[in-house]
């Protein structure tokens, strides 16, 4: 049978999600767990039907990364967690059609960035995010040369000294969210005015003193991936995740925020 799993992870100690031969990644640990459980014969070989909703970069965390695979009926989030390291927790699952694909069947993806900005002007943040929202060619916010046209939804909320910026779209080009956050940060601090967002969204490349890199990866969380599928939360697995990630509240801020989000309805 094919089953999809919601997987949360604190990515701050990983070199990203996607499997790499000479680096620690979330997918490497996931494949090792499946092999240890006898679901696959070899941790170097993906299980039949395997797909993931997307890749996350080194240092990026997730609340709702989603993977699909062909597996025995007994494979539950709790069973999978028994062989996963503490930084990776499955917490919900759904039985899906044999044609289901975790990447191609996703309707939208939502990221949250926890930007430490105690002195930011919230009205300027809102203005910058409003200008980014909608359908645009975001070629100045990614190194990608294709797939840069996207229909973006944005938002933010103030959480003490943090700005929690939200970006939602059907998909994202590389480094987009972190570069968008850097742009918002520039506008919020007054380093650039709001009109600069329009220039970034324009046809001409942004170069020289106006060019900018990406914000750090550690505060970024893949918060949600939407499907036409109902996932059942495994409350025992959710409790385990909240306990494990909660202990990282002081050492790793992002992990604690992932755990906090899981106390809410998916």
TrEMBL record:
Its recorded reaction(s) are:
uridine(38/39/40) in tRNA = pseudouridine(38/39/40) in tRNA
GO BP terms in the entry = tRNA pseudouridine synthesis
Tagged with keyword tRNA processing: yes
| Record EC number | 5.4.99.12
Query: Pseudouridine synthase I TruA alpha/beta domain spans which residues?
Result: 129-228
Keyword Isomerase listed? The answer is yes
Q: Where is the active site?
A: 57 (nucleophile)
GO terms (molecular function) for this protein are: RNA binding; tRNA pseudouridine(38-40) synthase activity
Listed Pfam families: PseudoU_synth_1
This protein's UniProt keywords: Isomerase, tRNA processing
Q: Which residues bind substrate?
A: 111
List the InterPro entries hit by this protein, alphabetically.
Answer: PsdUridine_synth_cat_dom_sf, PsdUridine_synth_TruA, PsdUridine_synth_TruA_a/b_dom, PsdUridine_synth_TruA_C, TruA/RsuA/RluB/E/F_N
- What NCBIfam families does the record tag this protein with? PRK00021.3-3
Homology family: Belongs to the tRNA pseudouridine synthase TruA family.
Function per UniProt: Formation of pseudouridine at positions 38, 39 and 40 in the anticodon stem and loop of transfer RNAs.
Name of the protein described by the UniProt record: tRNA pseudouridine synthase A
Organism listed in the record: Halosegnis rubeus
Q: What is the lineage of its organism?
A: Archaea, Methanobacteriati, Methanobacteriota, Stenosarchaea group, Halobacteria
Q: Give the gene that encodes this protein.
A: truA
């Amino acid at each position: 049978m094919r089953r999809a799993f919601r997987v949360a992870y604190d990515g701050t100690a990983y070199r990203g999600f996607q499997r790499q031969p000479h680096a620690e990644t979330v997918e490497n640990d996931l494949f090792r767990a499946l092999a240890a459980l006898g679901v696959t014969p070899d941790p170097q070989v993906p299980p039949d039907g395997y797909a993931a909703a997307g890749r996350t970069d080194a240092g990026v965390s997730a609340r709702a990364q989603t993977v699909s695979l062909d597996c025995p009926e007994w494979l539950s989030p709790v069973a999978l967690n028994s062989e996963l390291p503490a930084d990776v927790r499955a917490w919900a699952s759904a039985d899906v059609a044999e044609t289901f694909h975790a990447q191609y069947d996703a309707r939208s993806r939502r990221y949250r960035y926890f930007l430490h900005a105690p002195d930011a002007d919230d009205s300027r943040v809102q203005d910058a995010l409003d200008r980014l929202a909608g359908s645009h060619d975001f070629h100045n916010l990614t190194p990608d040369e294709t797939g840069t046209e996207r229909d973006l939804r944005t938002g933010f909320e103030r959480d003490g000294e943090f700005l929690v910026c939200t970006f939602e779209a059907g998909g994202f080009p590389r480094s987009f969210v972190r570069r968008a956050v850097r742009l918002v940060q520039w506008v919020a601090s007054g380093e650039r005015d709001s009109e600069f967002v329009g220039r970034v969204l324009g046809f001409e490349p942004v170069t020289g003193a106006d060019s900018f890199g990406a914000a750090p990866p550690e505060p970024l969380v893949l918060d949600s991936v939407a499907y036409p599928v109902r996932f059942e939360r495994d409350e025992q697995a959710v409790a385990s995740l909240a306990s494990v990630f909660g202990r990282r509240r002081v050492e790793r801020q992002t992990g604690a925020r992932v755990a906090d989000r899981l106390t809410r309805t998916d």
